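Appendix C reproduces, verbatim, an entry submitted by the partner laboratory led by Prof. M.T., so that reviewers can inspect both the input and the predicted structure.
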Amino acid sequence: MKDILLRDFFLGFIRIHILYHASCEEVFGLELMAELSRHGYRVGPGTLYPILHGLESKQFLTSQKRLVDGKLRRYYLITPKGKKALEEVRSKANELIREINEEPQ
């Protein structure tokens, strides 16, 4: 049960990371896997691509295919709806961080 709960938390964090990076510039799968790895997340394509597709189907991201070195690569960028969601998440995350960093009374 503990592992399932942690996985759910981490998947939420990964979605936030993706929205953040897609708000800065266009991103693609392998690049995101490397970035997430840098933050300690071990995410393979079987986890990452369904998340990307889900964020796109909910209109938080948009994508565009491009030919790069003879291979088709899909680039993702945040949408206005995704920006609004990211701002809401940022506000809630900041509130949560302040709260969990306080000493219990």
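The chain has a mean pLDDT of 93. Additional entries are available on request from the coordinating office.
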